[in-house]
Structure formats: structure tokens, C-alpha cells
């Protein structure tokens, strides 16, 4: 499934679109439970990864490429690298807004889960979102 | 007085139309990411296949709402889940919010 923008993410986007809400840097996180994204989701739906070395990544506004053809992508691939023994199975990523904590969108990888077990194991994502 | 009757008649029709409009429920469309029910089993519409006649659904458990299986079924056998059918941990706390999404 393509990425899912839940109801609260749609509302956030609408408010940012008309400047009712000031847009903030999105935060990229991995989730480690077998959850299929749905329109009712909130950030609390997802259990964030916790393997050694894991830390969520703030995606700064200036680092996005210019939108084109109804799509926008982050300028660089983001890497989550494990630094020790772990037991996480990663199913996908979710993105929340910095201040409100609203779930903006999420995506479960069709090839999931990805087992993170050892130091050096890495999950790599280039955030991209399309409006069509 | 003809003009007054016409005016009243038009106002009456508009009111009827407004009443009818208020009574008709909006169509709830199946879409990816919607909670659905297939033969009493709750899940999420994950994708469509075979030119749109087949649905790939992810069945979920309750109350966690985690995915426990995947099936491909005819789209025509799906319906939108009711509010109380959505797994407890993934059910919107506000029933009105759920209603707006078509879960009643």
C-alpha cells in the first residue's frame, strides 16, 4: 500500500495550507509492530522502535527538494543504524509533526518485517510524499 | 396573487429539497486504509487487484488492531466497518470523528 495520510494528518495539512496552523519540521520514526495503516490512526497507534542507536530523525524544511509533478522528496536518504544486539522487527515508518505530535502519514513496507539484530544493521528511508 | 403563489411554491420546494438533502446519508466509499468487514472478519483495505474487482485485505486482531493475516477477496463482499467493530485500541475516541469517516 502506498503511504497513508490519516484523518488527523489531512486536517493538519488543511490547516497548514491556509496558515491556520504553522507548519513545523516533521519527525521520521520507525515502528516495530505489525500494524497496517488506517484512516483512524494517530501517533499512538504505532510503537516506536527502540533498538540500540535508534533515534528519530527531524526532517528540516529546507532539506526537502522542490515539489514537482505533485510529489516532494527529502534531499537525502535517512539511515537508522543499530549499535548493539537487538530484537526489533521493523514494519515501516511514521511521521509526526514536531510540536503537535500529530500523525502526518505512515507507511508499512510491503517486504516487512526487517529484523534488526546486530550492530551495523541499518534501515534506510528517503521520505517522499505525493499529492496524487 | 399569482406571483405570491409562485414564490411560496418555490420556497416550499426549496425547503423540501433541503430536508431531503439533510436526510440522505453521504455515500461512504471504500478506499485504501478504510476499516472493512468481510464475512464477520474485521480488517483494513490494503489494496485492490485484478483491475479493481479483488480486494487485498489485512485482517486484524482485537483489541490491539495488529495485522494477523492477508486475504484476497471480491470487492463486492466488503462493507465499511461499524464504529464498535474497529479494534478497541485503534477506534477513534470520539464517535463523532468516527462518524465523519463513515464508521457509524
Termini separation of chain B (Å)?
Answer: 48 Å
Low-confidence stretches of chain A: none
Look at the helices and sheets of chain B and give the structural class. Answer: alpha+beta
Strand proportion of chain B, as a percent range, falls in 25-35%
| CA-based gyration radius of chain A | 15 Å
Between the first and last Cα atoms of chain A, what is the distance in angstroms? 14 Å
Instruction: Choose one word for the global shape of chain A.
Output: globular
Strand order of the largest sheet of chain B: 4-3-2-1-5
Protein topology:
The complex is a heterodimer of chains A (132) and B (104).
Chain A: H1 7-17, E1 26-31, E2 57-58, E3 71-73, E4 78-81, E5 89-90, E6 92-97, E7 103-108, E8 114-115, E9 122-125, E10 128-130
Antiparallel strand pairs in A: 1-2, 1-6, 3-10, 4-9, 5-8, 6-7
Chain B: H1 2-23, E1 35-38, E2 41-49, E3 54-60, E4 67-74, E5 78-80, H2 95-100
Explain what you see.
The complex is a heterodimer of chains A (132) and B (104). Chain A is mostly beta strands and 132 residues long. Helix content of chain A is 8%, strand content 29%. Chain A has 1 helix and 10 strands, in the order H-E-E-E-E-E-E-E-E-E-E. The two termini of chain A are 14 Å apart. The mean pLDDT of chain A is 96. By secondary structure, chain B is an alpha+beta fold. Chain B has helices at 2-23, 95-100; strands at residues 35-38, 41-49, 54-60, 67-74, 78-80. Chain B starts with a helix and ends with a helix. The interface between A and B is medium-sized, with 15 and 26 residues.
Using brief descriptors, characterize the structure shown.
heterodimer, A: 132 residues, mainly beta, 4-stranded antiparallel β-sheet, two-stranded antiparallel sheet, 8% helix, globular, B: 104 residues, alpha+beta, 5-stranded antiparallel β-sheet, 2 helices, 5 strands, 30% strand
Amino acid at each position: 500500500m502506498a503511504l497513508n495520510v490519516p484523518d488527523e494528518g489531512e486536517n493538519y495539512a488543511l490547516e497548514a495550507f491556509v496558515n491556520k496552523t504553522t507548519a513545523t519540521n516533521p519527525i521520521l520514526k520507525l515502528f516495530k509492530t505489525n500494524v497496517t495503516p488506517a484512516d483512524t490512526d494517530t501517533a499512538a497507534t504505532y510503537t516506536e522502535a527502540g533498538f540500540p542507536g535508534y533515534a528519530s530523525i527531524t526532517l528540516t524544511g529546507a532539506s526537502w527538494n522542490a515539489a514537482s509533478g505533485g510529489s516532494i522528496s527529502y534531499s537525502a536518504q535517512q539511515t537508522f543504524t543499530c549499535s548493539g544486539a537487538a530484537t526489533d522487527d521493523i514494519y515501516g515508518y511514521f511521521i509526526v509533526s514536531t510540536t503537535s505530535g500529530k500523525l502526518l502519514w505512515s507507511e508499512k513496507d510491503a517486504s516487512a518485517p526487517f529484523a534488526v539484530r546486530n550492530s551495523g544493521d541499518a534501515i534506510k528511508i528517503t521520505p517522499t510524499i505525493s499529492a496524487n | 396573487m399569482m406571483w405570491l403563489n409562485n414564490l411560496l411554491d418555490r420556497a416550499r420546494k426549496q425547503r423540501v429539497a433541503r430536508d431531503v438533502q439533510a436526510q440522505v446519508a453521504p455515500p461512504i466509499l471504500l478506499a485504501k486504509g478504510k476499516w472493512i468487514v468481510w464475512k464477520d472478519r474485521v480488517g483494513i483495505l490494503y489494496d485492490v487487484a485484478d483491475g479493481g474487482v479483488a480486494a487485498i485485505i489485512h485482517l486484524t486482531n482485537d483489541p490491539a488492531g495488529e495485522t494477523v493475516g492477508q486475504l484476497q477477496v471480491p470487492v463486492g463482499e466488503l462493507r465499511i466497518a461499524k464504529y464498535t467493530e474497529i479494534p478497541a485500541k485503534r477506534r477513534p475516541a470520539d464517535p463523532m470523528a468516527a462518524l465523519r469517516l463513515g464508521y457509524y
